[in-house]
Design brief:
Number of domains: 2
Strand content: 5-15%
Shape: globular
Largest sheet: 5 strands, mixed
Oligomer: single chain
Number of helices: 22
Number of strands: 5
Radius of gyration: 25 Å
Order of helices and strands: HHHHHHHHHHHHHHHHHHHEHEHEHEE
Structural class: alpha/beta
């Protein structure tokens, strides 16, 4: 009855919109259950969060904290996928709230619904689970919404929330700065009074003091997460300076194609032309252009200068204005008939993507999604106990082999030796590691030797590492097998 009363106050279109959001939440939460193990990003988050520290080898700590707390409370893979989609839907609600600043009610809702064709909100979150990028999909639209409110209404509560959101987002990922830059430029162009406003500096102070513990942590450990960025952005070959940003740009365009196609189908159904809206206010035009394209241009410039690995998902989180811009620059009168057709398009995109990804996850025999953790863990325990009297405590090597063994057997209090990119790990007691020994697992013999040197830096240069072959099977949802051959090395306790 309470739910019925809640819906009564809304128009039929608004009720259909809310139902669509709920369906997205449920469908893309359930897609992950086809997997037998969590995605590596989620496993990393659980492990990083368990360290209870203000930083990780790659990012600030927020994603790890949230992932770990969720998993610690519910002890379920389902809870991780559910929280992931909660952040997505919360971000969509703020996208809708931004849209209402520029569009009518029906167009604003459809500007969100058509994002179902943007595969960073469906395929990517279904495949990668929960990670810092998922949090950005919520925080970036929320930050933009409250920023717009702040500069137009100058309300204390809006400035307070903006400061808290920016601090929270920076504690999640440094990329938050790439949305702050275009907002600052836009304010300089059209709202310069902001920089004379005491509330603006209050928000800056709140964000800074929230981020301060991580800054102190960075100084304590010599900024070692930046070694990760140096490795990602450094290229061994000259042509990567061209190919890396070019591939990045192509993938970004492919990301929004689904939403553009859905919009074009809707326009054709409504028998509406594609005439560009010419009376756009200058400040609105620049608001969209700066917020959407400045982060993209910064990424492309980084690729041109550094030429290193440019992960396409770095740019995915900045396309949240795509639907709004389509409806704003190519206006469409959305009546009940057009709205209902737009909702159907959203569901069609949802079903097609769900079936495609569900089929892929079901038929693939990939260890990333169907790693037989219990079987491999049992074998490794037996191998270790045959050679050592101490329990297996330290695991090093390729984290996609070792993290699942660590997270899914947390009661054994094992330590996963994460790559700290040349810095001494602040989470590992070297004397304790020596006393307990280490098991190294990786894909190739030469990688075992390399990873042993990283995981056990106390070993002498002439220490002989002896890789041993190990085979296991991965089965897809139809029990079809695929054999994997990996290697392990036992580093016994050192007195």
């Amino acid at each position: 009855m309470e739910i019925k009363k809640f819906f009564v106050n809304f128009s039929e279109e608004k009720r259909n919109f809310i139902i669509f959001l709920i369906m997205h939440l449920l469908v893309w939460t359930c897609i992950g259950l086809i997997r037998t193990v969590l995605p590596t990003d989620s496993l990393e988050g659980i492990y990083w969060g368990s360290l209870h520290d203000f930083g990780t080898p790659k990012h600030p700590p927020m994603a790890g904290w949230i992932t770990y707390i969720t998993y610690f409370i519910f002890k379920s893979d389902f809870s991780i996928y559910f929280v992931s989609q909660l952040f997505i839907v919360a971000g969509w609600i703020y996208i809708y709230k931004i849209a209402r600043k520029f569009l009518d009610e029906n167009s604003a809702m459809l500007s969100v619904v058509l994002l179902e064709g943007c595969w960073c909100y469906t395929y990517i979150t279904g495949y990668y689970g929960f990670n810092p990028d998922v949090i950005l999909m919520f925080t970036l639209p929320a930050i933009v919404y409250y920023f717009y409110n702040c500069v137009t209404k100058n309300n204390f509560c809006n400035w307070l929330i903006l400061g808290l959101l920016v601090g929270f987002s920076f504690l999640n990922k440094y990329q938050t700065g790439l949305i702050i830059i275009p907002m600052a430029i836009w304010a300089l162009m059209f709202k310069r009074d902001v920089y004379k406003n005491k509330l603006f500096y209050m928000a800056v102070a709140i964000a800074f003091f929230m981020f301060l513990p991580h800054i102190m942590w960075l100084f304590k450990y010599d900024f070692f997460p930046f070694m990760y960025f140096e490795g990602e952005l450094t290229s061994p070959v000259w042509y990567n300076h061209i190919t890396a940003p070019l591939i990045f740009l192509i993938v970004q365009i492919s990301l929004i194609l689904g939403t553009v196609v859905l919009f074009c189908i809707l326009k054709k159904y409504a028998k509406s032309g594609f005439e560009l809206y010419k009376s756009t206010e200058k400040k609105d035009l620049w608001f969209f252009l700066l917020l959407c394209f400045v982060p993209l241009l910064i990424h492309l410039l980084m690729g041109l200068c550094d030429g290193g690995t440019m992960r396409p998902r770095w740019g995915f989180v900045f396309w949240f204005l795509t639907g709004i811009m389509l409806f704003y620059f190519y206006p469409l009168e959305v009546n009940k008939k057009e709205f209902n057709f737009g909702i159907k398009l959203g569901y069609a995109a949802m079903i097609l993507t769900f079936l495609s990804m569900g089929t892929l996850l079901s038929v693939e025999k990939n260890y990333r999604s169907r790693y037989p953790v219990a079987h491999v863990y049992s074998d490794m325990q037996n191998i270790w106990q045959q050679n050592n009297k101490t329990p297996l405590k330290y695991l090093g090597g390729y984290i996609e082999w070792t993290l699942p063994l660590t997270v899914y057997n947390e009661k054994d209090n094992m330590v996963c030796l994460l790559d700290t990119f040349g810095y001494k790990s602040p989470w590992v007691d070297e004397d304790d590691q020596k006393a307990n020994g280490t098991l190294i697992i990786d894909r190739k013999q030469e990688e075992i030797i390399r990873d042993t040197k990283k995981a056990c830096p106390f070993l002498s240069d002439d220490y002989e590492v002896k890789p041993i072959e190990y085979k296991f099977f991965v089965h897809n949802a139809f029990r079809q097998p695929r054999e994997y051959t990996i290697y392990y090395a036992i580093i016994p306790p050192i007195d």
